[in-house]
């Protein structure tokens, strides 16, 4: 026994409808995960910035100062971060630290 062309078309149409309903749900989930990862990265960097400020007395110039010993700095007890976090939305966009110790994103383009 075999399937008729109409039966196969009906099954394919139903699969298309089910996939069409499921794909947007997975896409929004991935954006939520990226947002949460970005927030976690920012909080980790800002916590390390505060530890740096306690040891040195000023905010670091860049995020790399939290990982590697900057030149002409005394009192550095780092590394304050094991590695520089990567932006989950775009790896070409770096995290930077403003004058108040808050994290901002700057594009490398």
UniProtKB/TrEMBL annotation:
Keyword set includes Translocase: no
Keyword annotations: Methylation
Single GO biological process annotation from the record: protein secretion by the type II secretion system
Gene3D superfamilies: Glycoprotein, Type 4 Pilin
Coiled coil: none
SUPFAM superfamilies in UniProt: Pili subunits (SSF54523)
Residues of the Type II secretion system protein GspG C-terminal domain: 43-96
InterPro entries to which the protein is assigned, alphabetical: Bac_GSPG_pilin, N_methyl_site, Pilin-like, T2SS_protein-GspG_C
GO cellular component, one term: type II protein secretion system complex
Protein name: Type II secretion system protein G
Annotated organism of origin: Desulfosporosinus acididurans
Lineage per the UniProt record: Bacteria, Bacillati, Bacillota, Clostridia, Eubacteriales
